[in-house]
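Entry 14. Structure prediction run on the chain below.
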Amino acid sequence: MEMNNQLTNIFDAHAHYDDKWFDVDRFELLDNIQSLGVCGIVNNAVDLVTAQKCIEYSERYAFMYAAVGFHPENLDGIPKDYLEKVARLCEHKKVVAIGETGLDYHWDIPKQLQKKVFEEQIKLSLDLDMPLIVHDREAHGDTYDLLRKYKPNALIHCFSGSVELMREAVKMDMYISLGGVVTFKNARHSVEVAAEVPLDRLLLETDAPYMAPVPFRGMRCDSSMIALAAEKIAQLRNISTQELLDITCENAKRFYRIK
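Output returned:
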């Protein structure tokens, strides 16, 4: 693998540095992460508490940005006025997207509530003209029904669908984000998508601290590890790792409207 310190323009389109896994060394890690080639990170909230943390980190680091919203696993006790609160947070200059939001049918969470909250956040993203970060786990049918209905400016993060679903998302002008899963031995769908997604629609992510690439699978992930996923995808596309990082960095800036 090319050494991280030789690579630049690593833009992590989706991370969770507020996670407790980073409590031991969060700021020490972030203080030094640019030296590993990382140029940008979008930290994603899952509720109002994490939204505040994401904003705090974005204020502390020029290269960090925040997304605010409610994750489908965090709907227990969601306040009735949550949309108004999310909308107010979106006024912050470092908030670049609504998310992450979406559907997760892996867990036993009431589907009607999930769909209601996802649809409301889609509408909010359209009302505020904000990018939307979509979580889709074992819920392709209902997720795509809502995306087809509203056609938001969306990024489908940690994309797990088929090439056909990728093509449909791209036809709706949406973006696809891939990460460490492309290095897993059983990741047939992700590898097929990585080989075929239009390069101008591809973003790279970690979902840190989760989804660390091989050979770090099961360990804590950080944004510098994108280099391993980038190397795998670059090989599939017959381009250099650095060229892929340059392209996906520009794509991330375009999607998130970062100058």
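The chain has a mean pLDDT of 96.
Filed with the rest of this week's runs.
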